[in-house]
Amino acid sequence: MSSTSFNVFNLNDGKVRVLHLSWVAFFITFFMWFCHASLMPYIVETFGLTTGEAKALLFLNVALTIPARTMVGALVDKFGPRLMYSLLLAVSGVICLAFASAQTYEQLAAARFLLGFTGAGFVIGIRLVTEWYAARQAGTAQGIYGGWGNFGAAIANFTLPAMAVAFASVMTDGWRGAVAVSGVVAILYSFVFYRLVRNTPKGSTYFSPKKLGPMEVTSKGDFVLYVIMCVPIFAAMAVICWRLSPAGVALLSENITIAIWVGLGVWFCWQVFNIYRVNKENLTNEIPELHRYKFKQVAMLDLAYMVTFGSEVAVVSMLPLYFTTEFGYEPSKAALMAGFFMAMNLIARPGGGYLSDKIGRKKTLMLTVIGSAIGYFGLSYITPEWNFWTITAIVVFCSFFVQAGAGATFGFVPTIKRRLTGQIAGMTGAYGNVGAAAFLLVNSFASASTFFLVISVSCVVVFGLLAMFLEEPKGQIAEILEDGTVELIDVS
Length: 492
What we know:
The chain is mostly helical. It contains 19 helices and 2 strands. The two termini are about 15 Å apart.
């Protein structure tokens, strides 16, 4: 990986081409993943949905993403990002077409649940970009990948309502045509991506885990912490299930709800067993200091992404409907407000990654998390009487720090353990959806003001934990080549 100067416009540079191909792939997946948010008023009208049923779709949108990111993270480490991203684009495109053609609420909900798989695309690109960029450029590159890719949600909010109106001239429900277009684009791009992308630069080694399964850890204490950090992931899925049960919106029957809970319990026990199976040798034999890493770094990044990206997903999911019902905005104007929140990804997430490379990863992450807390505190006070542009300014301020924080988080990820990058990114990404599920649950039962205030307080708590436990990456990490020799990779 070259350590020369970073020039994002130099398309003659192989790593720059891969970066652009990667963020475009992520852009398309994010566009599909959030295509429903700006179209929700139209979807509500078509199916005659209650407020509870509409909010259930928001929950379903993040449900599958939680386990998908951890599983896809393991698969990309094993099989490589080229194949995995191509498959994900193609499959997601087909599911998107199913969502566009749904005729009942049950079909709509099932397709929305399956589209949560699309959100796993993010972790694939993290591993790919890590392979092509040196540590001193990793934060900036990851920020561009994540920020420009996340911009897909903003473009969806800006364009899909207009596309729906345009398609309405030739079909009864114009939103279906708008959604279908994104699915077709994803399928076509899957072939482009597979044709043009390679896993690593020529001559580089693609490091993969010894075993397919849970993450490797290098101490007994890290084993315990890993198991503990798995609990919120399964708890979030259980909460989503409960929200869809007769106690919530009654999308699931009581018997099915209980069956899913039992299944989650069995799955958790199986996960703990697999964590032990993968790490049995490491737990019984002393791991040389050179090959150790600290899992607490992963745990802190999980929490940081929970309050940054997690809150971002929750806020973007609820904003269009919130500004339509509570502020009386027209659907296009409400979508525009949500678009403003996501649009900051274009500069904020790369900015967070850049600052992470230049002034320090821990310092940048702490600054952005506390800035997010201030932004959400401001949003908790907005009312319909406030001027539109004043509200917009607060939305933009908040979104800048939130998305810069997400960029700074993933500036950390490549510095922990190279062969586990996909799994680390997968778990960190899953925590983003844990946060989204938790915050959307708050949104279901509380006022918007309380919703924003809860996120603000959560950011303050995570800020304190980062200050106490997160360590600035220093020196080098070691990976073993196929011939048994050790390669040292700079992380600072």
